């Protein structure tokens, strides 16, 4: 028997129930379009404590109808500065007049999921491969339990190591030399920090922090990845211990922030990216298979834009599909479905391409500057950045438009 005869049939399948998968399912739901999200974890999964959401991300969350609820959980950041411990110099970090807040990742994910119809998310369902059905030319997903699922449209939101991205010809992701430790610290009696984003640096180590509420603070430390870090990343106590050692020259109150953090909020992560030139040369869809979020544009966290860009993807994809679906419903002709979906994906890819190429390029340059040991290389990157990205908050002004 052919695999398509055994397969469960669905219209729209989203692979991955992270920020992007859930936002995409919600965008479609708001437009009256049903989808199924396949998530390999047992429950909703959110790695990395908190996420900074900038004005472009809030615009997308507004369109999804969840922004008001999320705003209640986090204060607005009103400024930022950078302090070099080597020479005590202080510099402003521009954040503009737009809305910047830091959300608990679990809040964001749960809020998106709670607005979806029951049974939209299927947990413990890992996609292992994707093929085209030779008869219908629709994609067929092979699941970890050996079963098959055929869909008219597959959207890969399966993160940096995406199975779906490989199938549409995107090259594998690459690694920066820098890694990040992230955590949350709760101050029972309230903290003393202003509503500001602060980055403090000493040598190649940077500590950044941002209050989320009057008690809770999100912080991160960037440093070089070492050969022991794979083992360290699996144990919260070791992550804290190695971070304290990295930061021994930092002020005492900063050391205290790390030493008193929630152990279970700690994550040590290597940083992967898709090269900007790979994005430039790809169409982001093959037939009725496409990608969104990190599966499409994994980038370092240096601009804190990967998550917001994923929300933008969801809005644009939802809009492009909804426009075509309306025409399809009117005509009720199944023979045009494939063509219409392909047209919608073409429009989605066209609209997203240059936005994510520029974001990825800017992030890539910052990442390479942090990686660089040579002063000359750093200098060249600074010049290139000054020419290409003279408006440091230009990336936050982007508006993905209405859903
Ligand atoms: C250190 C760090 C800090 C960051 N800080 C920020 C920030 O402050 N602001 C910001 O906007 N962005 C930030 N980002 C980027 C942001 O985290 C990502 O862009 C965002 O999480 C991408 O969401 P996603 O849904 O595409 O991928 P993911 O969050 O990785 O979700 C993918 C989902 O797919 C599931 N999955 C994977 N493979 C399969 C499969 N084969 N079958 C079924 N399910 C599968 C996974 O279990 C997961 O749930 C940061 C990233 C890092 C690494």
TrEMBL record:
Annotated ranges, domain FAD-binding: 11-326
Coiled coil: none
InterPro entries in alphabetical order: FAD-bd, FAD/NAD-bd_sf, MOase
Pfam family, any one: FAD_binding_3
UniProt keyword Transmembrane helix, yes or no: yes
Keyword Membrane set for record: yes
Molecular function in Gene Ontology: FAD binding; monooxygenase activity
Residue spans crossing the bilayer: 12-28
Top-rank taxon, per record: Eukaryota
Entry keywords, A to Z: Membrane, Monooxygenase, Oxidoreductase, Transmembrane, Transmembrane helix
Family membership noted in the UniProt record: Belongs to the 3-hydroxybenzoate 6-hydroxylase family.
Official protein name in the record: FAD-dependent urate hydroxylase-like
Origin species: Quillaja saponaria (Soap bark tree)
Lineage, top ranks: Eukaryota, Viridiplantae, Streptophyta, Embryophyta, Tracheophyta
């Amino acid at each position: 028997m052919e695999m398509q005869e055994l397969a469960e049939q669905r219209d729209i399948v989203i692979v991955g129930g992270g920020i992007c998968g859930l936002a995409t399912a919600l965008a479609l739901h708001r437009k009256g379009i049903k989808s199924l999200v396949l998530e390999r974890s047992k429950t909703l999964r959110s790695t990395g404590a908190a996420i900074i959401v900038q004005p472009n991300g809030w615009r997308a969350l507004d369109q999804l109808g969840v922004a008001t609820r999320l705003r209640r959980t986090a204060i607005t950041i009103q400024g930022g500065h950078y302090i070099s411990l080597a020479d005590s110099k202080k510099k402003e970090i521009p954040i503009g007049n737009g809305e910047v807040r830091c959300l608990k990742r679990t809040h964001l994910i749960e809020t998106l999921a709670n607005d979806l119809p029951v049974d939209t998310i299927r947990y413990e369902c890992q996609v292992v491969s994707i093929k085209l059905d030779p008869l219908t030319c629709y994609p067929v997903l092979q699941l970890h339990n050996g079963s098959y699922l055929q869909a008219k449209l597959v959207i890969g939101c399966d993160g940096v190591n995406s199975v779906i991205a490989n199938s549409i010809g995107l090259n594998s992701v690459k690694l920066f030399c820098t890694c990040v430790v992230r955590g949350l610290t709760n101050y029972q009696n309230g903290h003393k920090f202003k509503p500001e984003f602060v980055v403090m640096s000493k040598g190649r180590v940077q500590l950044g922090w941002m209050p989320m509420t009057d008690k809770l603070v999100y912080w991160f430390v960037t440093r070089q990845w070492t050969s022991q870090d794979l083992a360290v990343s699996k144990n919260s106590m070791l992550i804290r211990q190695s971070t304290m050692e990295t930061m021994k020259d930092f002020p005492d109150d900063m050391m205290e922030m790390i030493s008193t953090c929630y152990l279970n909020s700690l994550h040590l992560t290597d940083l992967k990216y898709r090269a900007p030139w790979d994005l430039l040369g790809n169409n982001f869809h093959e037939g009725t298979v496409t990608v969104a979020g990190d599966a499409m544009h994994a980038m370092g966290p240096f601009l804190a834009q990967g998550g917001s860009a994923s929300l933008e993807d969801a809005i644009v994809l939802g809009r492009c599909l909804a426009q075509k679906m309306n025409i399809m419903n009117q005509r009720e002709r199944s023979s045009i479905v494939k063509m219409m979906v392909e047209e919608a994906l073409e429009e989605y890819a066209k609209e997203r391409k240059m936005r994510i190429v520029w974001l990825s390029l800017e992030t890539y340059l910052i990442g390479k500057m942090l990686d660089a040991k040579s002063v000359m290389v750093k200098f060249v990157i600074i010049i290139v950045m000054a020419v290409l990205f003279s408006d440091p908050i230009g990336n936050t002004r982007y508006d993905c438009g209405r859903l």
